[in-house]
Amino acid sequence: MESGKAVIVSIAAAVLIYVTAIELAGYHKVSEAFHRISALTWLLVLSLSLVSFLVRFVRWHFLLDHLGHRVPVLPGLAFYMAGFALTTTPAKIGEAVRLWYLHRESKIPYAESAPIFIFEQILDILVVVLLSFLALSVILPSIDQRLWIAAVLLGLLLVPVTLARADRLAALVLALLKRRGFTKLEDVGTNSKIFIQSLHSLAASHVCLPSLVVGLFAWLAPGLGLYLILRNLGMGVMVGPETAVGIFMLSLIAGVVSIISGGVGTTEGALAVFLTIIGIDPPTAVTAAIISRMSTLWFAVGLGALTTLGIATVKCADPVDLH
């Protein structure tokens, strides 16, 4: 499957990039920094990432419920986590495998689940941009933050408008999903009216605003994980929690802008560069960047792969009932 190849390629690329970065920064210095990370810090950072995944699942479950689909919690959690196995596909489109699970196990039409996928992507982008402002005063001290804040508020206002005019968006997501191998999505096209009505429903303020707030909490967690890493490396005085969160978000934006699958390499590179800009030495910056990505992106991919394997095992053992 094309998505599987993309994940393998991204893993190979990550290994090559990490080895190169470690060599350039100095193997012995990076190794020494790695050994300064305690087991407790690893546990806390991974726990924060897990909290982030679970909070985002709660939002996904809430959106499904809003559209009238009662998916049992445990199977729904399995479907959601399985999507992380394909996070490193271009534009994270592989995560749409959740739609396939919902269609196969809960008979939910793609025309009603695809809008949730789009809605989450839009909200996550806004949340990441909003949280990135926490570090702008440090990274770009010459730029008036009021301009950035005004831009974000405008973006928040445009979300319902964008979703309300979903005709072109529907055609775009259908084309993308089909390109990634989801060939049985014809009902999205044939039921475009349902697709657009679902997006309209999600754009309602009583759905959009709570989802945005939940997203803020979800993405704060991995940013705080970076702060814990830096504090354990002895950089806690130099970098406060708000700056760490903001820098983490700026690096994610750099990964998205690069259009590289999963932002592999560009996100880590941007994170290391931003950390050196605020005064952290290169070996420590490279170490923090690699550990941060291992505990977020690659932790998610690993959990997703294990969940996918678990679903397949359960399906083979009991093909009648996953619920």
Explain the overall architecture.
With 323 residues, the protein is mostly helical. The chain has one domain. It is 78% helix and 0% strand. The longest helix is centred in the middle third of the chain and has 30 residues. The protein is globular.
Which key terms come to mind for this protein?
323 residues; mainly alpha; 0% strand; globular; disordered C terminus
Gist of the model:
The protein is mainly α. The protein has helices at residues 2-25, 27-35, 39-66, 73-82, 97-106, 110-139, 145-164, 167-179, 186-190, 192-202, 205-232, 241-258, 266-277, 282-294, 297-317.
Q: Roughly what percent helix?
A: over 70%
Strand percentage: under 5%
The secondary-structure element order is: HHHHHHHHHHHHHHH
Global outline: globular
- Taking all Cα atoms into account, the compactness measure Rg is 20 Å
Taking the sheet with the most strands, its summary is:
none
